[in-house]
Amino acid sequence: MNKFLRNIILIAITIYFIYYAQNHFDSYTLSILDNIGIFAILALSYNLINGIAGQFSLEPNGFVAIGAYFTAILLIPTDTKLDMFALVDPAPIILQMKAHFLPAILIGGVAASFVALLLSFPVFRVRGDYLAIVTLGFGFIIRIFAINNPAYTNGAMGLNDIPEEANFLWIGIICIVTFLVMIHVIYSKFGRAMKSVRDDEDAASAMGINTFKMKTYAFMTSAFFEGIGGGLLASMLTTITPDQFSFLLTFQLLIIIVLGGLGSMSGALIATILVMGGMEWLRFLDDDITIFGMDLGAHPGMRMVVFAILLIVMMLFARRGLLGDRELTEFFKKKSK
Amino acid sequence: MSNVILKIDHVTMQFGGVTAIDNLSFEVEKGSIYGLIGPNGAGKTTIFNIITGNLYPTKGRVIFEGNDITGVKPNKVVYKGIARTFQNIRLFKSMSVLDNILIGFDAQANYSYFEAILRLPRYFKHEKIIKQKAYELMDIFGITQFADSNATALSYGNQRKVEIARALATNPKLLLLDEPAAGMNPNETAELSEIIHKIKKDFDLSILLIEHDMKFVNAMCDKLTVLDYGENIFEGKPADAIVDERVISAYLGDFTNA
Amino acid sequence: MDMQIFLQQLVNGASLGSMYALIAIGYTMVYGVLRLINFAHGDIMMVGAYFTFFAKAAGLPFEVAVLIGIIGAAVVGILTDKIAYKPLRDAPKISLLITAIGISFFLENLFTVLFGSTPKAFSAPDYLTKIFHIHGIYLPISVIIIPTVTLIILAVVLWILYKTKYGMAIRALAFDIQTVKLMGIDADRIIMIVFAIGSALAAIGGIFYAISYPSIDPLMGIIVGLKAFAAAVLGGIGSVGGAVVGGFILGFTEIFVVAMFPELGGYKDAFAFFFLILVLLFKPTGIMGQDLERGRF
Questions:
Q1: Is the four-CA dihedral C18, C21, C22, C23 of positive or negative sign?
Q2: Chain A within 8 Å of C284 (Cβ-Cβ)?
Q3: Do A218 and A198 belong together in one domain?
Q4: CATH class of the domain defined by B90-171
Q5: Considering only A164-173, A289-298, C207-216, which range has the smallest mean pLDDT?
């Protein structure tokens, strides 16, 4: 129970810091913290399907989009919707959908999770790496669907004037909840079963593990929190368009979980801060570069080249990332022995 | 009849045009140790894969405790009471010895996903029970001191023990051992046969084992079937097998070595 | 639909299907020998088209530029394998897939940085863009040339696979990499040949694409690559004949569905995805595929 008490105190301190930050930090710092918090939520959940269950998936951008759209539609007041939908009138159901903030983001999460369940049947029943290609394709399909159904999504113009209800308090607390849920899953029979599927699928089923079910649980849980992350993102940005949820988002998250160590949740948290910081720091790469008085011009995309090289080099030379597949606490445990 | 726990009933297995198992039948009696021997490529492991549902036989049936289990999925076969080990030890390599064995107890930990996430009392209760059982099992095999070590860091002989303990954790009635003595030195082999006899008695098991080592088979098995190119060329007591002409000709090299 | 329109769509479908087929062959061959979805394959197609574009811009004759594009793509394909995939042959599968997606993202962004993200107009010589009108059918000559060339290439690839020593090794490798090593075949050399053939075909597909549209951009390989992969799965992953059949089915479907139901035009790029889902649900081995993923013990 000592450990239990320690954890409660840790969580209380973290929440107090979040509360303090929300009330005392300036809006620029808060916006950076918001961003880090949302990416942490996404990286933690992405790490469950990829790192713990070992199923290579490229889903985050698709599920984030689902969560973002659901939340946006539920939050935007009816009058605003009537004004906003320029191409066609909004579908009646779009006008009827209405919810408070917390239910809205939860519904976004449930919707993403439901889609994950549907995708599970084609990809997890067969062996092979179809999950990656199906989820990659799914990200594009979501965009196609959003553009072609203006009565539901306002087409390529996207949705704006989304009430800005997400703040660092919300984001921080949801981030803590996500972390706890992931840790609780990992240190349970479900987490063990997911890891056994990752290590050796045949041996796992020879031990009575329903491998399809474990992959689906991991996928749906990831999707749920990615949907919620999407809802927070929509409410933070107040504007969403179909093009915003591109593969770039997934790629950033992939870098984060590989850097942190596939399967390590504390690693994912640390890597989120490093990568988000690195993204800001490397911003100069995309700008005008002058070397020895020679103007090389602006190179939008240069940062992404650097990150792609970083990912490849990590896979080739430091596959285990910062923490391998262990949590921070496990390192301390080993030391005390 | 009721004394038969497993019945292989006229099983044939073809891959493309190749016949791996040809019309094979045998019966394993409850409480016995049954051996399945034969040269490499004789189709021994194929039979295991058919019993555990990894393969669906071209013809024939697998009867377990009077029920047809042909084609039942591998994870469901475990619930019926059949557990296996693999020829080339397949432990979960990123997991500790304890966690490996806890995987075997998965079905006995009776709490739901939400109970785990919310850390409700049932989670604590059942985790405590299966951990206790896992330590009891490790004690039997003398591997308790490795509980927190990474499973693949152990010696070959100890990994074999972990694998058998993991299979036992699923609470089987029939244990399938795929070349348990392979790669072991004589001391380890002797220790292993002792353990197998002990767990057979303590857990009220029937055992079907595949083996190369004739000495080991002689010491272990009550009855055996000799396979050659998927065909049953001998069935009976081990003592009779080593004097059977067909067995000798199929096996020549191995016998002289043994 | 009257006969003229039908014939018109038929040639269009054959032309589109050819491109998918050419790219799908590379996916299916690499998957056969490495069990890897080579995410960078669609980008290799883009690389081939860019090399051709720049060779031509440098003043070389179109035919030479095409050759440079093909060879350039093959070299990039081989390098990809040597640098990024080969060191990971014994690593967990997920490492290989992550690296593949890294290569894909690297190529897309590198070409964006180097050449900008705006599409470049791709001009083919007149004899490829000439248009005939036969009985009301609008017939760019490329629409005839593309499927013809594709079928010739397919015949060559099948000849290599089934009649040469290397082809036999490729097929053996698809079956079991260990046995092949025991047989004394240099598996890495065979894998290199597979990447060379696959990338060269992707480049040809990319050049056809560039002629038909007629423009190229650094991200052109993503959607086409995705569709070609779906075509490979539809035909049966691992089977070259299947990849071609899958490619043509996808090409015809896209053209005919849009012709018959114009309101579905916006969803054209989604058809491949639905094919992929349906195949995985009902016949994961595809039309002509064997079960490559059967559990081996």
A1: positive
A2: yes
A3: yes
A4: alpha beta
A5: A289-298
Task: State yes or no: cis peptide before C214, omega within 30 of 0.
Answer: yes
Tell me, yes or no, whether A158 and A172 share the same domain: yes
A258 and A167 in one domain? no
Looking at the fold, whether A192 and A331 belong to one and the same domain comes out as: no
Q: Would you place residue A196 in the very low, low, confident or very high pLDDT band (cuts 50, 70, 90)?
A: very high
Chain B partners (3+ C-beta pairs within 8 A): A, C
- Domain final residue, candidates A195, A221, A245: A245
State the residue range of the domain holding A300.
247-337
Instruction: Tell me if chain C has a CB within 8 Å of the CB of B54.
Output: yes
Helix axes A27-47, A265-281, angle to 10 degrees: 140
Residue ranges, comma separated, of all CATH 3.40.50.300 domains in chain B are 1-81+173-258, 90-171
**Mean pLDDT, residues B245-250 taken together:** 76
Count of structural domains, chain A? 2
A225 with A273, same domain? no
For the stretch C35-92, pLDDT in tens is 899 999 999 999 999 999 999 999 999 999 999 999 999 999 999 999 999 999 888 8
CB–CB of B116 and A190 under 8 A?
yes
Structural fold of domain B1-81+173-258: Rossmann fold (3.40.50)
- C166 in contact with A at a CB cutoff of 8 Å? no
Q: What are the tens digits of pLDDT across the range C165-198?
A: 888 888 888 776 666 666 777 888 889 999 999 9
Specify whether the CB–CB gap between A40 and A268 falls below 8 A.
Answer: yes
Which residues fall within 8 angstroms of residue A64, CB to CB, at 6 or more apart? Answer: A42, A112, A226, A227, A229, A230, A233, A245, A249
All residues of chain C having their beta carbon less than 8 Å from the beta carbon of residue A312 are 84, 99, 102-103, 106
pLDDT score at C64: 95
pLDDT tens for B224-240 read: 888 887 778 888 888 88
> What's the pLDDT at C219?
93
HSE-up (13 A, CA, CB side) for residue B177: 33
Average pLDDT over residues A156-165: 92
The full set of domain ranges for chain C reads 19-220
| Angle, helix C271-282 to helix C240-260, in steps of 10 degrees | 130
Encode burial over A280-319: b for 16+ CB neighbours within 10 A, e otherwise.
Answer: eeeeebeeeeeeeeeeeeebebbbbbebbebbbebbbeeb
Do C102 and A262 lie within an 8 Å CB cutoff?
no
Amino acid C228: pLDDT: 95
Please name the chains neighbouring C, where neighbouring means 3+ C-beta pairs under 8 angstroms. Answer: A, B
Do the interacting molecules here have an ipTM over 0.85? yes
Among A245, A265, A296, the domain-final residue is A245
Q: What is the dihedral of CA A167, A168, A173, A174, to 10 degrees?
A: 60
Q: Which residues in A lie closer than 8 A to residue C237 (C-beta atoms)?
A: 128
